[in-house]
């Protein structure tokens, strides 16, 4: 052990540290035996590789092929997994014997790895999928997303209006659908509309319907989404883009549970739960006079924030393999492994388009590439573009104060307010970035 590490460990609570280390090894095939060859720990990864369950092994004498004996330091051995013949694979076993302070054998640690690179990639993708939590189409291993799942579960049991906040491509509609599917309204309609996709007049007609003769071309009565979603859930995506004149009508529906169609003269009663979504801050929209404050409070009874993909990087490889397996099922091309250079580029990317963009990248790779390996050259052009120009903006070019302030402001906008990321794009330290922000009042 090197001296800095040894000195640091002397001041750490070793048992909690060791237990947390084991928890991080669930995807790897790690196991521990004591001096009597009894299994002390058998990780989830060891279960998946060997086919042997921890509950059946822990506290019992291990099989001979998994034994770790005195003198087996750095021992390597090829063994056969105990799965059925159809799924059995060859494993490489690496072992390290352990000794107490008197030099007496105390047990050992073993690591199981697939013997071939292809098996390693397939095992990793399977392990990632099995250790993830799939929640009504939402796939994640992130603790932040587990908290989101719990809020969805709790909110679905009520009739409260929900506002989902998240960036484009982060899965806002999947959240809305999960709330509907978990609610008492699950057998009634779930309808969705993007409030930014239509003009004010078309959106009015689409939401609230119109009567015959209401305007040129209205040759018959039209039932709007509120009528068609009666008893169910209506998902209003990009609700911050709703025109002010329609915000008043939406507020009335929420408060009074009735509305008047375009060109109509009588109100229609309706029972609809609303789940709205936006990538903007409604509070900021209210401050800027673009959104009604009373409607904001009506919509955000239960706010749900979806973290962007760049803030839950443990999900990137999981989602990549999930979408690869989906496309593999189409039998056009089967990807069994990812080239290290390609995986590094995928993991380092900031994913401004979130999960939707990630899915598109996998689809692009399937379309332009061939063979069983996903290679760096098969990634979209943005992964191969040089990112050095932007990082040199402040350091290498003689910018005026106005230009430098504008660069800092733009970097903050692109990083969605993340100071560390904005500083990196401009080639500054975090301290320098803060100092310049203070100077320019950004």
UniProtKB/TrEMBL annotation:
**Which PROSITE patterns did the record assign?**
PAS (PS50112), SIGMA54_INTERACT_1 (PS00675), SIGMA54_INTERACT_2 (PS00676), SIGMA54_INTERACT_3 (PS00688), SIGMA54_INTERACT_4 (PS50045)
User: GO annotations under biological process?
Assistant: regulation of DNA-templated transcription
Domain Sigma-54 factor interaction stretches: 138-367
GO MF terms here are: ATP binding; sequence-specific DNA binding
Pfam families given in the database record: AAA_lid_14, HTH_8, Sigma54_activat
Keywords per UniProt: ATP-binding, DNA-binding, Nucleotide-binding, Transcription, Transcription regulation
Q: Which residues form the PAS domain?
A: 30-86
Q: Could you confirm whether the keyword DNA-binding appears in this record?
A: yes
Q: Which InterPro entries match?
A: AAA+_ATPase, AAA_lid_NorR, Homeodomain-like_sf, HTH_Fis, P-loop_NTPase, PAS, PAS-like_dom_sf, Sigma_54_int
Q: Which Gene3D superfamilies match?
A: 1.10.8.60, Homeodomain-like, P-loop containing nucleotide triphosphate hydrolases, PAS domain
Superkingdom of the source?
Bacteria
Recorded protein name is Sigma 54-interacting transcriptional regulator
Q: What is the species listed in this Swiss-Prot or TrEMBL entry? A: Candidatus Methylobacter titanis
């Amino acid at each position: 052990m090197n001296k800095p590490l040894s000195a640091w460990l002397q001041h750490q609570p070793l048992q909690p540290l060791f237990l947390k280390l084991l928890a991080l090894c669930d995807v790897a095939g790690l196991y521990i035996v004591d001096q009597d060859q009894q299994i002390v720990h058998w990780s989830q990864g060891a279960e998946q590789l060997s086919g042997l369950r921890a509950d059946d092994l822990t506290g019992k004498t291990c099989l001979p092929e998994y034994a770790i004996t005195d003198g087996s330091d750095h021992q390597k051995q090829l063994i056969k997994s105990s799965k059925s013949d159809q799924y059995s694979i060859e494993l490489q076993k690496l072992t390290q014997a352990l000794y107490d302070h008197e030099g007496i054998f105390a047990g050992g640690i073993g690591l199981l790895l697939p013997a071939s690179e292809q098996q390693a990639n397939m095992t990793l993708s399977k392990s990632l999928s099995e250790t993830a939590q799939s929640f009504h189409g939402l796939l994640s291993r992130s603790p932040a997303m587990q908290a989101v799942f719990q809020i969805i579960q709790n909110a679905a049991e009520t009739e409260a209006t929900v506002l989902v906040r998240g960036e484009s491509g982060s899965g806002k509609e999947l959240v809305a659908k999960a709330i509907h599917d978990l609610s008492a309204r699950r057998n009634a309609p779930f309808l969705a509309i993007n409030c930014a996709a239509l003009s004010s007049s078309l959106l009015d007609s689409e939401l609230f319907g119109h009567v015959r003769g209401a305007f040129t071309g209205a040759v018959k009565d039209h039932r709007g989404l509120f009528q068609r979603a009666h008893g169910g859930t209506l998902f209003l995506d990009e609700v911050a883009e709703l025109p002010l004149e329609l915000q008043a009508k939406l507020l009335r529906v929420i408060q009074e549970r009735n509305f008047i169609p375009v060109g109509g003269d009588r109100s229609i009663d309706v029972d609809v739960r609303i789940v709205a979504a936006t990538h903007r801050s409604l509070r900021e929209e209210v401050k800027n006079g673009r959104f009604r404050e009373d409607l904001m409070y009506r919509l955000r009874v239960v706010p749900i924030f979806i973290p962007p993909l760049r803030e839950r990087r443990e999900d990137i490889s999981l989602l990549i393999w999930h979408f690869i397996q989906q496309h593999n099922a189409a039998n056009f091309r089967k990807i069994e492994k990812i080239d290290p250079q390609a995986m590094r580029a995928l993991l380092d990317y900031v994913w401004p388009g979130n999960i939707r963009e990630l899915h598109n990248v996998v689809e692009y790779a399937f379309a332009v590439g061939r063979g069983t390996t996903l290679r760096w050259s098969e990634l979209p052009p943005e992964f191969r573009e040089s990112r050095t120009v932007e990082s040199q903006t402040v350091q290498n070019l003689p910018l005026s104060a106005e230009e430098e302030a504008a660069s800092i402001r733009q970097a903050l906008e692109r990083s969605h307010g993340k100071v560390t990321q904005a500083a990196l794009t401009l080639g500054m330290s975090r301290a320098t970035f803060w100092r310049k922000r203070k100077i320019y009042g950004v």
